Amino acid sequence: MMGADHGAIDHLQCMRDRGTIELVGMGSIENSSRVIVDGALDLENKGNEIAFWGVSDAYNDAKIRNLAGSGSVFIYDSDLVLTAAQDTFSGTISSVDSEGRHLKGGLTVQGGVQTLSGANVYFGATKVDAGAGLVLTSTGSLASDVLVSGGFVNDGDVAGDTIVQDGGMTGGSGSYSALTVLGGGTVATNGKTPLTVGSEFTQKAGSTLVFAPVENGIQPAIAVGGRAVIEDGASITLDRVTTGRLAVGREYALVTAAGGLVGNYGSLTGDLVTDAPFLSFALDKTSSGVALGVERSDIVFAEVAHSANQIAVANELEALGSGNELHDEVAYMTAAEASDLPAAFDSLSGEIHTAMLGAVAEERHFLRDAVNGRLRAAFGTVGAYKGGVQALTAYGPVSAEATTDGPVYWGHAFGGRGEADGDGNAARRDSRTNGVVLGYDAPVQNWRLGGVLAMSDSSYGLDGRASSGSGRGIHLGVYAGTQWGQTALRSGLVYSTLRLKANRSTSLGTINERLSSKYNGHVWQAFAEVGHRLDHGTMALEPYAGLAHVWMRTDSFAENGGETALAGAEGKMDTTFATIGVRAATTIEAATHKLTVSSGIGWRHAFGDARPELAMAFAGGTGFNVAAAPIARNAAVLDMGVDMELGRNTNLRLDYQGQLATDAREHRLGATLGMQF
């Protein structure tokens, strides 16, 4: 538009004909959303006026909101001012006239973010105002000096000097001819490729380097071809978002200067420095550069643990060392995150495996109880089941009393639950067990000899550890009993094989996993009990004493499911139980039924391995021991039973057995239905 005083272009101007549009009079461009230049836009310095949203100001500069396209913009001695930039311009902005003179036109990004991806050869300053941004892509270049009060991302090449002013920031993977960061200014590295300065790099007092390592510190964050000057009071910021995780025991190159380094950084700032209790940082200066050293602080992981199990896990994680995902997850925690570590250590401990080891060893008494009950019945002892059993004769099974002299088979079904309280180290354990016991015995001289087959299902829970387990067992055994007058001896030997399963959830910082495992368990138990019957009117009493030894083993195992998975060693428990007590029974005659009521009370003491422990390890770890809730050393033993004759050929027995200790309880119900055919 030539010579048109106050001529106006009040629409979005799209120039795509490869021609030239010149604005040389007192014309104006009423600013639309953007100006697209695919031809040539000539802004000759003759008092041009480009109005912003219809508000006209008489400048020598040309104002538009936004610049896009791939053409050429000629700015001569004018500055092109972008007030609301948001596009990419891949063409050329030039202030070289037709005679090759370098005029003083420049570019100011006053608002928004402008991207330049072409070769720009204007020689007035490039200014990025506060709150605005300029991005120079890898194909872009600037011939001018750059003054940064906003944000300048340089992935291209700047031939002039770049000065970052108070409140400004620059960074990227491009090259600078010279770079000066004034007080209040920031230079940030991107962690991909070094920021390159061809001649001199200067950081004034009060300026900041925001550091991100390049190739784990192998390359410097800033590579200077000339001299680097770091004034006292310049600082380095290490923050979790930009810097990321640094390897403990490594040095990271910050600045290298071929022309030598003068001065050093005065301080380290950022949340990695102020809020990473397990890390410490130090600067190492040489004549040609400065590096950042990363070490573990004097605070060990175990300092935040509260219990023996937590300390064991913490020490194992510590021993894994830098570079291990679990170790580094802890090392980079904030103080607030570290406050959750005690619970995290518990979740990692694998305590469910140790808890099952102890629970399986303790609950095997259901087999001893069933066998001893059968032997009491065989000899008509106090508290015995009086109903019918099936006797085996040459003619097949026939009904017989429990005290029959012939061979018999018998059965017993049971179900119960137990719990062991936590102790500040181990978690509370809940367990449920049910099963059926089948047996056969026959008289041999003054003895009854027999065999037993049982099947059981158990479940275990550690709610405080988000863990559960189960065990399915098959049990085979032999037993023998005899009686001398009023004195009875009952004994047995049982082997159990179990298929154990465990599932648990782990949580450590950002790591959350679900783990599972399967392995086998093996139990041998030998037991004997002596009782002496005392009759007193309609009541009979039997003081008794029993001894049992349980030899428990679990196979080694490896969990599946993630980085927190454990490998467990073979588990071992060798525990002896001694019990003394007394049983009583009486019979009540009713009009149509006869009831036999029995009860007993005793005291049980456990010797040997009462607290289960198991050795486990993370991949690459040295191993640690974890304890679970102990078997009660001392417990009261209770039993009660009722035999009811439901008919001439039918008898039902209901019984309860319990163990009560200060920190543990177990309750079990059993039912036996005897029928004569």
Automatic annotation (TrEMBL):
Protein's name according to its UniProt entry: Outer membrane autotransporter barrel domain
Assigned GO CC terms: outer membrane
Stretches assigned to the Autotransporter domain: 402-677
Pfam families on file: Autotransporter (PF03797)
PROSITE patterns: AUTOTRANSPORTER
